[in-house]
Design a protein that fits this description.
The complex is a heterodimer.
Chain A lengths: L11 H17 L4 H6 L3 H12 L5 H15 L6 H15 L1 H5 L3 H25 L11 H8 L1 H12 L4
Helix pairs in contact in A: 1-3, 3-4, 3-5, 3-9, 4-5, 5-7, 7-8
Chain B lengths: L18 H22 L3 H31 L3 H36 L9 E10 L9 E4 L12 E3 L4 E8 L4 E5 L6 E6 L5 E6 L6 E2 L14 E4 L11 E9 L8 E6 L8 E7 L9 E3 L2 E3 L28 H6 L13 H13 L5 H8 L24 H20 L1
Helix pairs in contact in B: 5-6
The chains are: A mainly alpha, B alpha+beta.
Chain lengths: ~160, ~425
């Protein structure tokens, strides 16, 4: 990985792939309906993590590709999640140094704000394309996503540095 | 944070420009894809491929649940199997008795109408499909089934279970298809109230367990417990299949529309097997199609022809000239009152609509304009199922509300 030379760490791309696949499976796993409502956007959390942790290796491209993958499974139009996740990744990449230095609790708050923006982009595109779903339940995953951020970040960090 | 260790402190300007620039590029790409998909439907093919590409992943994800089911089934006790066998036997006997009765009724009906062809089309062919246990979208009511275009499944095909209407196929891949359930807020289903024949549209109410009937006027004749069946308009579902039972009717004196909810018969939440059905589109009860400004039914051979050339040529399908109906319906009748020159579904609908209340029924306009042979065009469209029927989305549904109001006004002035 040319962009990572100088660091002793292995390329995060393998870890990225693994975590993205894991997040996708968690997204698609059938759950009882009450769990479905509170299921956080695992892929969004993964994208946030990697855009902060490895802004050059993953970055916006990772968000965009993950979004397209999500679009293939759900969503009314192709490109919807791609745009929203690319936006989220952009915010993460732009502010990665500031976010990294924050304690985990404040990171959760930032992630909450990011997820709300992400959901709002989806909401807006849903509306523009005529597939609006105005149920307030759609905002629940932003909250649960922020709540599990510390755990998710820890798991994702382990995936990247299994040897230490 | 433990993980945030890579490359800190180095500027991000590397390959591909600044993050803002790259984001702009990706945003443009996303928007281009969205516009292509939404406006031009150029990505029909892409959806097909994606459906094929995602199916293996979906199968793998659903496999633990499927394996668990299989294990559960293979360890089912003898007692429960016997009980199930008993239950199925009872049900089979019951259904056989009912189908006998149905045959008798069908014959009677055919004799009465004098037109065997006028019977509503029943499913001609059906195929069982398993639901792949997977969560497609938490906000929308979609399921994935394990049959695709290689099994002959087409877009916009009716899906039923053994209790009622489930939904219709939306995206079809080679081995799988995405089904939009009738409870999806984007799904609109043309229904008829069985008791009165009143036609309306049932849309998904946004939750998994109910349908809404948003277009019924407050004075509509509808009660809790009424059964909704498919009306056959829209062309996706054959008429007469059970859809839902009305659970809630709320009429407010100041509101022009009634607030009606219904619970679907189909076991949408617990189904693991559904049926895809094929039915004859050219049945007289099939949806009205506009042909040269006239509303026609699917079967050309039994149209009410505008100018009768020869006197009564009784169709072979009308064995008993007991009633005046067959002549009128075969269309070659010489000089009956213009009112009887109505195609079969309209003829069926006339008596229903007269006591049905304030629906803008097509039959009225038929009656009104049939004398000249030039019937008024009805702009009423049932946007049954938005996406599957060639890219109609929610907007047509909203537009159809206006069209409905217009048609309502039109029907009253006639």
């Amino acid at each position: 990985m040319s962009s990572l030379k100088g660091t002793s760490l292995p390329s995060p791309r393998i870890a990225m792939l693994k975590t993205v696949v894991g997040a996708l499976i968690l997204t698609l796993l059938p759950l009882p309906s009450w769990l479905e409502i509170i299921r956080p956007g695992f892929l969004a959390l993964t994208v946030i993590y990697w855009s902060i942790a490895a802004p050059r290796a993953g970055g916006i491209a990772l968000g965009w590709i993950c979004g397209l993958m999500l679009d293939a499974f759900e969503g009314p139009v192709l490109g919807e999640h791609a745009l929203a996740l690319a936006f989220l990744a952009y915010l993460g990449v732009r502010e990665h140094q500031r976010i990294r230095s924050k304690p985990i609790f404040q990171q959760s708050l930032i992630v909450f704000a990011g997820l709300i923006l992400y959901e709002f982009v989806l909401f807006a595109i849903d509306g523009w394309t005529g597939h609006a779903s105005t149920t307030p339940l759609r905002w629940v995953p932003t909250l649960t996503g922020a709540l599990i951020w510390p755990a998710a970040a820890a798991v994702l960090a382990r995936s990247y540095r299994p040897r230490t | 944070m433990a993980g945030f260790g890579t490359g800190s402190g180095r500027p991000l300007q590397g390959r591909g420009g600044s993050p803002g620039f790259r984001f702009t590029l990706y945003a443009i790409a996303s928007i281009a894809i969205m516009v292509l998909d939404q406006r031009f439907n150029w990505l029909e093919r892409a959806h097909y491929i994606l459906q094929a590409a995602t199916y293996p992943v979906e199968l793998i994800v659903s496999s633990p649940v499927a394996a668990w089911r299989w294990i559960e089934n293979s360890f089912a006790s003898r007692d429960s199997l016997e009980a199930e066998n008993q239950r199925l036997h009872t049900r089979l006997r019951d259904l056989e008795l009912r189908s006998m009765r149905y045959d008798a009724l069908a014959k009677q009906n055919a004799a009465l109408i004098g037109l065997r062809k006028a019977l509503p089309p029943v499913a001609q062919r059906w195929m069982a499909a398993h639901i792949v246990n997977i969560q497609l979208d938490a906000l929308r009511q979609r399921v994935l089934i394990d049959r695709g275009s290689l099994n002959g499944v087409t877009q916009g095909q009716a899906v039923l279970d053994d209790h009622g209407v489930v939904g219709q196929t939306m995206y079809v891949g080679p081995w799988s298809a995405e089904v939009i359930l009738i409870t999806d807020p984007e799904h609109a289903l043309p229904v008829e109230i069985e008791r009165t024949g009143l036609r309306t549209i049932a849309v998904g109410a946004g939750d998994a367990t109910s349908l809404a009937l948003p277009y019924l006027p407050a004075n509509a004749d509808i009660r809790v417990g009424d059964v909704l069946v498919t009306s056959g308009l829209g062309g996706v579902f054959p008429p007469g299949y059970p859809v839902a039972r009305v659970t809630e009717v709320h009429k407010d004196a100041v509101q022009p529309l009634a607030h009606v909810r219904a619970a679907p018969f189909a076991h949408l939440a617990t189904d693991s097997e559904v049926m895809l059905i094929w039915f004859r589109h050219d049945s007289p009860s099939a949806p009205l199609r506009e042909h040269n400004g006239e509303l026609t039914t699917g079967d050309r051979s039994i149209q009410a022809l505008p100018a009768p050339a020869r006197p009564a040529q009784t169709s072979p399908a009308a064995p008993t000239p007991r009633s005046p109906m067959p002549k009128a319906a075969t269309g070659g009748a010489p000089g009956p009152a213009p009112k009887t020159r109505i195609t079969t579904p309209a003829g069926r609908a006339v008596p229903l609509a007269t006591h049905g209340g304030g629906v803008p029924s097509e039959s009225r306009s038929h009656e009104a304009g049939s004398g000249t042979g030039k019937r008024p065009r009805i702009s009423l469209r049932y946007p049954c199922c938005a996406k599957a029927r060639g890219g109609l989305h929610v907007r047509p549904l909203v537009a159809s509300r206006r069209a409905r109001a217009r048609a309502l006004a039109g029907a009253r002035t006639h």
